[in-house]
Amino acid sequence: MNWYDLSDYGNNYxxxxxxxxxxxxxxxxxxxxxxxxxxxxxxxxxxxAGLSGAAIQVGQGDTxxxxxxxxxxxxxxxxxxxxxxxxxxxxGVGSHAPAEVWGAIDLAVDGNGDGLADPAxxxxxxxxATMSGYIDITADSWPAGNHVWVIGNEYKxxxxxxxxxxxxDGDYVERGTIIGLMGSxxxxxxxHLDYQIWHNGVNQNPLNYHPLP
Length: 213
Ligand SMILES: [Zn+2]
Fold this sequence. Notes:
Layout (H helix, E strand, L loop, with lengths): L5 H25 L25 E2 L26 E6 L9 H4 L2 E5 L9 H4 L3 E3 L4 E9 L3 E7 L3 E8 L1 E2 L6 E2 L4 E4 L11 E7 L2 E3 L9
Antiparallel strand pairs: 1-2, 2-3, 3-11, 4-10, 5-6, 5-9, 6-7, 7-11, 8-10, 11-12
């Protein structure tokens, strides 16, 4: 084409733009991040989570009584209301790594007292808010399944894979309020709770907030 033939120039420009667009789409597809599994069912082998084989005994409700100095909108205690709660995957390991992004602990219930998490004891176990705050619900998300954030001033706590919600989006709840039931929704290989704590946008190790005795 001639340099002054603007119509041809325009067509080539359009073709170029389309080609560039396709390249960008291809690039985005090829570089799509693979979504890590944020939770795994390790109930069969608690030692994977760095625990001894023994179940961890948790009182019903009393672990949510925070010591003096812990305000109501700071997370404290065990979000799972059951007699025998076990941690099936620890903080910053396996699908919880890197901790800055996927930091969490997985909790399940040892229903029959054999020292291991089991699905029968875990499904439907009440999940409680460990702090006061506003409810932010995401249903059927991936990888978190049915997910609840409890959002306060500085902290927010995340509760994933729920089978059922017991609160509404936008509700204000106090620590101890049952927000949902344990399940296995989203990317989950068995019923458990994936529990996260964030402080001013920084992922925290829930074990520093007394989720287990
Ligand atoms: Zn998890």
